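Internal tracking record. Fields below are filled automatically when a chain is submitted to the structure queue. Please do not edit lines marked as system-generated. If the sequence contains nonstandard residues, flag them in the REMARKS field before resubmitting.
Queue: standard
Priority: normal
Entity type: single polypeptide chain
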Amino acid sequence: MVRDGARLLVAQSSTSSFQGSWAPERHASLAAPRAAETGRPMVHAALTGVSTVFGPAGERVGGPIGTGRSAAAVLDVRPAGGTIPYVRFGDRAVGCALAVLAALLTARGVRLLRRALRRRPGPAPPVPPARTARASAGHPGR
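SYSTEM-GENERATED OUTPUT FOLLOWS
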């Protein structure tokens, strides 16, 4: 929607089956990362649940309206413009970061493997003969 020119995101929900639990607040909080990843303010309007507004950086604007209230609020939310990298590149940015990380780990692994293969075992350290009960100094004839 942002690529098509949306300057404000609005989501409507109804969490009536979750009343009395932690879920309505958690469900409303999911609007914050959507706002931050798109650089657009997001309004989460709930018929039953928690209604809240987040700014373009994911910050809360105003206070939430919880499940225990039947109310309306008027908040000043300015539509945002411009494009942030996640909107421009989407999940490709995450994929590229993972590819770079995989390449660095592979290069490190190859270096460690080469170093291990170059090492040649040296002479074995001298080991004193084991003493047993049959041939101990205290009992030579056993």
